[in-house]
Write a structure and sequence with these properties.
alpha/beta; Immunoglobulin-like; TIM Barrel; 4 domains; disordered N terminus; 1,4-alpha-glucan branching enzyme activity
């Protein structure tokens, strides 16, 4: 197995390290010039739609696109495609075949690696493996349900590529009969204006009326904890949710992944940047792991999309390239898949890669004093006030919430669908004024009552019967809005 070192830290810190690179890396003819590639991507930065519309973004888009195409070319030359590169879960961890079990792990700082009592060998490029053949009776020597203990030097570890755990212990999961999906994956992307997502833990998945998507939280990498649910039960649950027309999304918390992987092989520079919990997105094996995690959940559990959390894109071009690769992968495997990123200020997050963006379908946003753009979601906390819930409905194109009451859904049913995608937003003495569809929303998120003047006539306050205001003349109105109150007016 060949290894490509994308970071200088490893080659500096591991003495007598032998790094082997496939000859294909040095092909003179670029794989990025064929017709199929040029139909999917646009390499000329001046032809990117985002640059045409916002020329001031040319420099930042050009620098990140150059790095994206450089990494993409390496991936295609070495692994044929992003999809093949992202099948690391079929090579690493515990791979079962007709002849036995192969265990592989990337641990460049390891001097010794063992799986249970079986010693691994290394290719001197950071990869370790051991093959455990079947016994004379044609049975696997590791039995289904058995614990799997990785010993890295003097450290006891759980394999990074574990797919099943019991608490903090990796488990060999190989039942005779495995559940087969009955439903097909998401066939049609949910309409953006109707995307209502409920956050639930993986062991508490249920269909809540009024929502059309479920977000699985508290899940780190590929390992499923059987103390919460086992692979077959989870597949049955997802199958049932798909049958009811729900999309099933998964949250990827990059901060938790960094904390999990820090010092795995005893070094501070394996998966994370030295001295931090920040994943080193420029490294080949980090990219392989993160992209394989996405591919695994789509392929093995029919997950319909992902929310990317704890992402800080400030001056981190490697992270931006990873996100572009991730979106390219998601929409390659699952054209109708959904990708969401937490609230960040960064150019062209929700433009396609061919347009010069990062390729996300939605971003989570907080209200701002400007015209609201499409492709935004609003995350509503569990203890949200009435005005916060109303803000979540009138801004953007959907909501994410972990509340299970009907208050939010009741308000939405009263409003009907907000037909226009854009919302004109202004602030009047801390009161937020939103003009969208046929409604005007006045939202007071402060802890004080506010009296404001409006330059139009109010005909009716829809959500408060008998609400009073002062009509100064045909074009001017004075109205008081209580603290944490929201008004819907015509």
């Amino acid at each position: 197995m060949n290894y490509i070192d994308q970071g200088s830290a490893l080659s500096r810190k591991v003495p007598n390290r032998k790094l082997s690179k496939k000859n294909s890396l040095f092909y003179q003819q670029s794989v990025l010039e064929n017709e199929e590639f040029l139909q999917k991507y646009e390499k000329n930065v001046d032809q990117l739609q985002t640059v045409i519309e916002e020329p001031e973004l040319k420099e930042v888009i050009q620098s990140r696109n150059e790095k994206f195409f450089q990494v993409l070319e390496q991936i295609i030359k070495v692994e044929s495609s992003i999809k093949d590169f992202a099948k690391g879960y079929q090579k690493f961890g515990f791979v079962v075949s007709d002849n036995g079990i192969t265990y592989r792990e990337w641990a460049p700082n390891a001097q010794e690696l063992k799986l249970n009592e079986y010693s691994c060998t290394t290719d001197n490029g950071g990869n370790w493996e051991v093959f455990i053949p079947k016994d004379d009776d044609d049975n696997h020597q590791i039995v289904h349900g058995s614990p799997l203990i990785t010993q890295c030097n003097d450290l006891q570890r759980v394999s990074v590529w574990s797919q099943v755990k019991k608490g903090e212990q990796a488990i060999f999961w190989n039942p005779e009969n495995k559940y087969e999906f009955q439903q097909q994956q998401l066939q049609q992307k949910q309409q953006s204006k109707g995307l209502k997502i409920n956050k639930q833990r993986i062991n508490q998945l249920e269909n809540i009326p009024g929502y059309n998507a479920i977000l699985i939280t508290q899940q780190v990498l590929m390992a499923l904890d059987i103390d919460q649910t086992n692979p077959d039960d989870l597949k049955k649950t997802i199958d049932n949710l798909h049958q009811q027309g729900l999309s099933v999304l998964m949250e990827i918390d990059h901060q938790l992944i960094g904390q999990l992987l820090k010092n795995w092989d005893g070094s501070e520079f394996q998966y994370v940047r030295e001295g931090t919990d920040q994943l080193d997105y420029g490294k080949w094996e980090v990219l392989r792991l993160l992209l394989s995690n996405i591919s695994f959940w789509i392929t093995e559990y029919q997950i319909d999309g992902f929310k990317f959390s704890n992402i800080d894109l400030t001056d981190d071009i490697d992270m931006a390239v990873y996100l572009m690769l991730a979106n390219d992968l998601i929409h390659d495997i699952l054209p109708n898949g959904i990708s969401i990123i937490n609230s960040v200020e960064y150019p062209a997050i929700c433009r396609t890669i061919k347009e010069g963006g990062l390729g996300f379908d939605f971003k989570l946003s907080q209200f701002q004093t400007k015209q609201y753009l499409p492709k935004t979601l609003y995350e509503i906390p569990l203890d949200a006030q009435h005005v916060q819930q109303l803000i979540g409905l009138v801004f953007g194109q959907g909501v994410i919430t972990n509340g299970k009451d009907n208050n939010l859904l009741l308000m939405e049913s009263q409003l009907g669908w907000l037909e226009t995608e854009f919302a004109d937003v202004n602030v009047i003495d801390f009161v937020i004024e939103v003009k969208r569809s046929k409604y005007i929303f006045l939202l007071n998120p402060t802890d004080q009552s506010r009296t404001i003047k409006l330059n139009y006539k109010i005909n009716k306050v829809l959500n408060h019967e008998g609400y009073n205001w002062t009509q100064i003349d045909d074009n001017n109105t004075e109205i008081q809005i209580q603290s944490e109150q929201g008004l819907i007016i015509e």
